[in-house]
Amino acid sequence: MILLRQLLGDVLRRLRVRQGRTLREVSTLARVSLGYLSEVERGQKEASSELLASICGALGVPLSQVLREVSDQFALAELQAAPVLAEVPEHERLLPETVPGPMSDSVFPEVKDMVAA
Fold it and tell me: Ranges for the HTH cro/C1-type domain (predicted)?
């Protein structure tokens, strides 16, 4: 099973190491204990949104960038764990007629406009 907290910790650690910064430096700037930050990076603790914002501020990266990287890593992990289509029983496959069609104009029109652009 893929754990979100592990992927989040991996991304945070990678960003910190890439910047050549120590746990102590980032923990001081983020105003979080060294031990807690270490546990977050190792995927042993769930970080609150406030704590994530503080860590991202200390690293000088937008929270949205961190979440995007986590999302990309999560998607890759899901794909690697997904069974090959040939191994999925016929009755469990998503057939083209079961996949939703184009977005309706009434549902999130601003998203539809962004997709069309």
Answer: 12-66
- Give, in degrees to the nearest 5, the angle at Cα 41 between 55 and 26: 35
- The C-alpha R_g of the chain, in whole angstroms, comes to 19
CB atoms within 10 A of CB 24: 11
Count of structural domains, the chain: 1
Determine, yes or no, domain membership for 106: no
Give CA 55 to chain center in angstroms. 15
Tokens of 90: 């016929």
CA angle 74-67-64, nearest 5°? 155
pTM of the model: 0.69
H or E element at residue 117: none
**Domain-embedded: residue 33:** yes
pLDDT, tens digit only, all 117 positions of the chain = 778 999 999 999 999 999 999 999 999 999 999 999 999 999 999 999 999 999 999 999 999 999 999 999 999 888 887 665 455 565 555 544 444 444 444 434 444 444 444
